[in-house]
Amino acid sequence: MRIASFNINGVKARLPRLLEWLEETRPAVACLQEVKSQEEGFPFEEFEKIGYHAICHGQKGFNGVAILADGVEPVESGRGLPGDPEDEQARFIEAEVHGVRVVNLYLPNGNPQPGPKFDYKIAWMERLRTRLAELLESEAPVVVVGDFNVIPEDKDVFSVRAMANDALMQPASRDAYARLLHDGWTDAIDTLNPQGGVWTFWDYQAGAWQRDHGFRIDHLLLSPQAADRMTAAGVDKAYRGREKASDHAPVWVEIRD
């Protein structure tokens, strides 16, 4: 069972590339971030034409997350990260698919830092840890995927110096991510690539793609019950090089049925 994550950077703008990827790689579950669409404008019908059923937690022009499942309806189990009733940003959705709880998130970027955007990021990560702790207690197979907007370690970025002042690499961001791992979550990509040097994002600016100046911010976290079933994980890097591509590449993990 392949569960994939893709920050699509606008589902309408990237729809041809997204459909290509789905048909060519055929993940059982595809989680999208930054769809930048409300539910009423989300292209459910286009996905249904190729056999995918979708749920979406949308927002006009910003954020937005969706879960697509191949041949089955994802059973929604929650939308919106608990812990702050005033937070209206569409960044979090959960569903059950084939007996696995799938959590899809688009974590706040936090720039510029310091400032209110960074404070929101760290508070969001604290709320996320609380929710994920509840899921760990369920002792069910859980896979948490998405754009975490955190570069976990120096080995996960092309240049530590270039990103030193970015919110993605601040000690508070890294510490909050590390606490998730210490709670019992397995970082699939890092576990299988302990040497680092695996990128999931390349900026549109300064020839970053052509120079391979990237970093890893799209992550796949597995509960112990899911990690025991992991067989492979990777990055579909080539899709970043296609015409009118997202600035992220899809990432994926495979677990035994």
Automatic annotation (TrEMBL):
Residues 4-248 form the Endonuclease/exonuclease/phosphatase domain. CDD domains: ExoIII-like_AP-endo. Its EC number is 3.1.11.2. GO terms for molecular function: double-stranded DNA 3'-5' DNA exonuclease activity. Coiled coil: none annotated. Keywords: Hydrolase, Magnesium, Metal-binding. Its cofactor is Mg(2+). Belongs to the DNA repair enzymes AP/ExoA family. This is Exodeoxyribonuclease III.
